[in-house]
């Protein structure tokens, strides 16, 4: 087998031994040679196929280390409330969508952000009832930690004035004790069960149709943090030969016992579909006022957020999972939640033997707001910071208003890297857009798309382009235990790479967000082409 020579290109390998090349030889799903044209042609021999890339740039395939791909593809067929400027605008969109639904269908979708409305009021079931009175509606907020439901949905879910708040959750109530239609954290679990059910459509078909959207952005691999229904859908696509990119699939905490009984361990699987860590929520989100903070929220003296999983229970789950060979990915946004997770991981390291400590790579998902003294602890305890750069820039208005003066290390990827931690980047789509170049732009500039604020928010935390790319490539490969296979372009690695008409290293940082992909190759096969 002579293979394919990709030539006349500016290849950025991210391999420190040979950072640049002009040609690459691929055989099967592996890279055989990377170097100058004569070298690769000679290695290929006669009969090789030659692909002239016309001077375009080549990068290793990008990896999204935190995405909810199932939720993302489902949302493409649902009502989209992103960017609404007011409750009235949101209700207008909802009414239009409801009118086109079959009579027995749930109204699903979401992405609303009342913090950005001109009048930032919390919506209520009575608002939804005005435009959607005859069918149940469940609409998650942009951060996914709150669901807005109507009266019909509350009835279907069996939630009324007598329903107690569940542990780790809150049913918002009016002055008479009646549910307002806002369900936070664990109180939203029953509504999320609907959102992730066949009521939302055929997930296998939705993934088959829409996963190429991710390939088009330059993603060749994802770490999916959705539920067991997503795992089953990926398995179906894989069995059919229809899985177009590599998936590292996490385990929801609710399925931990099932995973242990089945003998799953982190890293099991193959190069296309592998088992990831178990995801455990420890708090909520800043926008929902539910992430766990050391200091109470301004104007809310008793509200420090919600401990979705209390410290003692989290430590028990870490020990249980790790004892079965399953790493932990802890959702932690607030400074108090991150400190709690780091303490639990430190105690686990003290009690575990050298084998598990060396084998398991625990993670913190989001790692958004840290007490400065906790920054070096991630490297000390071998914890991966799984971060989403566009959260930083999207949250600028929110953090400016809510966290000013607290002295936190927020979205502190430069500080974490300087301390020696591994930082793996992702998008958290559908919370944010899955385009990794949006994330690269945010990591390098720490500015919103319009270039504000000048110099970026906390500019000392900005990254150079090369480092940002490594957080979207080799760090993601490390987080899935595949650094020997992915993340760099060198002989022996998987032939996962992307081709760009514009070289990222030759554009102004402000233009990184505008980069497009011409070709996406996974396992030596062109999976997407513009």
Automatic annotation (TrEMBL):
Coiled coil: none
Pfam families assigned: Amidohydro_3
Amidohydrolase domain boundaries: 51-526
Domain of life, per lineage: Bacteria
UniProt cross-references to InterPro entries, sorted A to Z: Amidohydro_3 (IPR013108), Metal-dep_hydrolase_composite (IPR011059), Metal_Hydrolase (IPR032466), YtcJ-like (IPR033932)
Protein name: Amidohydrolase
Native species: Micromonospora aurantiaca (nom. illeg.)
Taxonomic placement: Bacteria, Bacillati, Actinomycetota, Actinomycetes, Micromonosporales
């Amino acid at each position: 087998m002579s293979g394919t020579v990709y030539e006349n290109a500016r290849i950025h390998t991210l391999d420190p031994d040979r950072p640049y090349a002009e040609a690459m030889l691929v055989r099967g799903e592996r890279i055989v040679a990377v170097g100058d044209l004569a070298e690769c042609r000679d290695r290929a021999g006669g009969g090789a196929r030659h692909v002239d890339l016309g001077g375009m740039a080549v990068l290793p395939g990008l990896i999204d280390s935190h995405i909810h791909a199932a939720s993302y593809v489902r949302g493409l067929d649902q009502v989209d409330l992103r960017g609404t400027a007011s409750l009235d605008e949101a209700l207008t969109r909802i009414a239009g969508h409801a009118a086109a639904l079959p009579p027995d269908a749930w109204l699903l979708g979401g992405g609303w952000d009342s913090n950005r409305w001109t009048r930032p009021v919390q919506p209520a079931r009575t608002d939804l009832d005005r435009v959607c009175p005859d069918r149940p509606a469940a609409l998650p907020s942009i951060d996914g930690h709150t669901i807005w439901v109507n009266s019909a949905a509350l009835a279907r879910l069996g939630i009324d004035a007598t329903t107690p708040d569940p542990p780790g959750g809150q049913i918002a109530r009016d002055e008479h004790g009646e549910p307002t239609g806002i369900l936070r954290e664990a109180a939203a679990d029953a509504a999320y069960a609907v959102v992730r059910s066949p009521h939302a459509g055929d997930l296998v078909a939705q993934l088959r149709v829409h996963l190429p959207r991710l390939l088009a952005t330059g993603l060749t691999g994802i770490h999916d943090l959705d539920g067991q229904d997503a795992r089953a859908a990926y398995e179906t696509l894989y069995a059919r030969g229809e899985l177009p990119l590599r998936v590292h699939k996490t385990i929801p905490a609710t399925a931990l016992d099932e995973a242990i009984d089945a003998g799953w361990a982190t890293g099991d699987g193959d190069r296309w579909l592998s088992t990831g860590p178990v995801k455990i929520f420890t708090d909520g989100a800043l926008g929902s006022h539910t992430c766990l903070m050391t200091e109470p929220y301004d104007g809310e003296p008793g509200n420090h957020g919600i401990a979705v999983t209390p410290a003692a229970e989290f430590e028990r789950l870490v020990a249980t999972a790790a004892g079965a060979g399953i790493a932990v990915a802890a959702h932690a946004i607030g400074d108090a939640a991150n400190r709690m997770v780091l303490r639990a991981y430190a105690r686990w390291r003290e009690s575990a033997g050298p084998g598990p400590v060396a084998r398991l790579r625990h993670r913190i998902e989001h790692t958004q707001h840290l007490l400065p003294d906790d920054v070096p602890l991630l490297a000390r305890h071998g914890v991966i910071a799984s971060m989403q750069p566009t959260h930083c820039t999207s949250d600028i208005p929110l953090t400016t208003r809510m966290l000013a003066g607290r002295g936190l290390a927020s979205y502190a990827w430069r500080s974490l890297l300087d301390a020696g931690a591994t930082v793996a980047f992702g998008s958290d789509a559908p919370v944010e857009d899955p385009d990794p170049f949006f994330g690269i732009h945010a990591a390098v500039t720490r500015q919103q798309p319009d270039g504000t604020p000048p110099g970026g928010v906390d500019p000392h935390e900005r990254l150079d382009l090369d480092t940002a790319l490594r957080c979207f490539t080799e760090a993601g490969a490390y987080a899935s235990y595949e650094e020997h296979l992915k993340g760099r372009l060198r002989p022996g690695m998987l032939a996962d790479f992307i081709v760009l008409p514009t070289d990222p290293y030759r554009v102004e940082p402000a233009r990184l967000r505008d980069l497009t992909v011409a070709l996406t190759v996974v396992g030596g096969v062109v999976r997407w082409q513009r």
